[in-house]
Automatic annotation (TrEMBL):
Tree of life domain: Bacteria
EAL domain ranges (all copies): 8-260
Name recorded for this polypeptide: EAL domain-containing protein
Organism this protein belongs to: Sphingosinicella rhizophila
InterPro entries referenced in this protein's UniProt entry, alphabetically: Cyclic-di-GMP_PDE-like, EAL_dom, EAL_sf
């Protein structure tokens, strides 16, 4: 019998009641279209504000949820909130694609795509407005999940491979699995200003994504230098603290109204410094 550390056991017990106690919430981080400067969509980020353990990020509590069997209820809560938020933004006049990260354990259920499609249909959210993100570390098993991933695509949902470059995916998996988007991990993006090897890797990943017909999205963009470099290389989308930190749903509309002109101008501006970086 596996002995579970006392802290994890306590956290698992609290997590089972987190949704009921209204301790879970979502933050939203915008993604910028690097061609137009417009809003490409948002990523919904799950958070848990626990009275016992404080504010916890998914990297801390999702593994606990997976080991304790609470992951399915968390996923159900999350996707329902995403759908409701999409509808709320639509009422405000915004049509926004929302991305949400799905556990590899949830993807083992071949009926989950059907369930998610029914939820969208009942509430009135087009499946095309939903992107499911799969962390690259989960793709060592992704070939076995091919049926589930393919069902998502048949129903019109997009699939993003998250944290690319840090996990176990292979070029064969990229070719065989029905992804629509490749998200370049921040560990490569943060070094593009100083490290020629990082620049080469980022350029190669963008070219690879485009060669496979995928959208290339850069994560962790924090400086103008990074942004200009990505625009110059033809990266499709970017998200990071430079554009916006994760925010509450009610803060997104003001952000859109106040920032869209700025980012459209940034994408039109000649990226002279980025050109210098690209050949350095």
């Amino acid at each position: 019998m596996k002995i579970v550390p006392a802290r994890e056991a306590a956290a698992a017990a609290e997590l089972q009641l987190a949704a009921e106690r209204q301790e879970l919430f979502l933050l939203y981080q915008p993604k910028i279209d690097l061609v137009t400067g417009g809003l490409a969509g948002v990523e919904a980020l799950l958070r848990w504000e626990s009275p016992a353990f404080g504010l916890m990020k998914p990297s801390e509590f999702i593994p606990i949820a997976e080991r304790s069997g609470a992951i399915d209820s968390l996923t159900d809560w999350g996707v329902r909130q995403v759908i409701r938020q999409w509808l709320d933004w639509r009422e405000q006049g915004f049509k926004i694609n929302i991305a949400y990260n799905i556990s590899a354990l949830t993807l083992r259920d071949v009926h989950f795509p059907d369930y998610l499609q029914r939820l969208c249909q009942i509430e009135g959210m087009p499946c095309e407005e939903l992107t499911l993100e799969v962390t690259e570390g989960a793709t060592q098993h992704a070939i076995r999940l091919l049926d589930t991933l393919t069902r998502f695509r048949i129903k019109g949902m997009s699939l993003a491979l998250d944290d690319f470059g840090t996990g176990y995916s292979s070029l064969l998996q990229l070719r065989q699995l029905p992804y629509t988007e490749l998200k370049i991990d921040r560990c490569f993006i943060r070094d593009v200003a100083d490290d020629p090897e990082a620049r080469l890797i980022v350029r190669s990943i963008i070219d690879l994504a485009h060669g496979l017909g995928l959208v290339a999205t850069a994560e962790g963009v924090e400086t103008e230098e990074m942004f200009e470099f990505l625009v110059d290389l033809g990266c499709d989308q970017a998200q990071g603290f430079l554009m916006a930190r994760p925010m509450r749903a009610q803060d997104l509309a003001p952000w859109i109204l106040n920032s869209q002109t700025h980012w459209r101008e940034q994408c039109k501006r000649p990226a002279l410094h980025a050109c210098q970086l690209a050949v350095a």
